[in-house]
Amino acid sequence: MYNNRGPQDTRFALTGKDAALYNGDGVLLATVENFQVQVNVTNGTYQPLGDAQEHDVLQSYKVTLTASQITIEDDYLIQDVFNMMHEGQQPDWTFQGVVYGRNGSTQRMNYRGCVPAGNIDLQNASVGDIIKRAWNMTVNDPPELQSLLNAA
């Protein structure tokens, strides 16, 4: 058998309740309902003389962080956005994303140089819904992998 590990043990499957987003000071951003960090890789293709195959070479990458924040109280994030609009100085945030494994291991990634990008909700409301604020950010520094999950 090629896969000697067999199917993954679903008792160790993780849910969104096993993750958290912290600010740069290590304070849990408890009002963040969800977050997602993605990397978009752009490659250039080249084909050397005498080679029939095209190859990809890293050209650039962009890391983005999006989050949905349940509006309970205003915090330093929204204050920084208003300061940016009035003073013309872009905020520079640091976040730490953590996923907690069932066996006590953690996956930690640090995101430094986070700046507002795209649309950010200032205010919104709809009847019968929880008011949330959507955040979009670009991560200007390469993410730092601090620790890995393990299944053992």
Report on the architecture of this protein.
This protein has 152 residues and is mainly β. It has a single domain, classed as Pnp Oxidase, Chain A (Roll), CATH 2.30.110. 8% of the residues lie in helices and 44% in strands. It contains 1 helix and 7 strands. The protein has one helix at 76-87; strands at 19-23, 32-46, 55-70, 93-100, 106-116, 132-139, 144-147. Strands 1, 2, 3, 4, 5, 6 and 7 form a 7-stranded antiparallel sheet that branches. A hairpin with an 8-residue loop joins β2 and β3 (55-70). The longest helix has 12 residues, at 76-87. The two termini are 21 Å apart. The model has no long low-confidence stretch (mean pLDDT 89).
Which keywords apply here?
1 helix; single chain; 7 strands; 7-stranded antiparallel beta sheet; Pnp Oxidase, Chain A; globular; 8% helix; mainly beta; 152 residues
Return the CATH class: Mainly Beta
CATH fold name, please?
Answer: Pnp Oxidase, Chain A
CATH architecture: Roll
Low-confidence stretches: none
- The end-to-end span amounts to 21 Å
Average pLDDT reading: 89
- Please tally the β strands and state the result: 7
Largest sheet: 7 strands, antiparallel
Number of helices: 1
Helicity level: under 10%
- From the spread of the alpha carbons, the general shape counts as globular
What class, by secondary structure content? mainly beta
Strand content: 35-45%
Write the SSE topology.
Blueprint: E1 19-23, E2 32-46, E3 55-70, H1 76-87, E4 93-100, E5 106-116, E6 132-139, E7 144-147
Antiparallel strand pairs: 1-4, 2-3, 3-6, 4-5, 5-6, 5-7
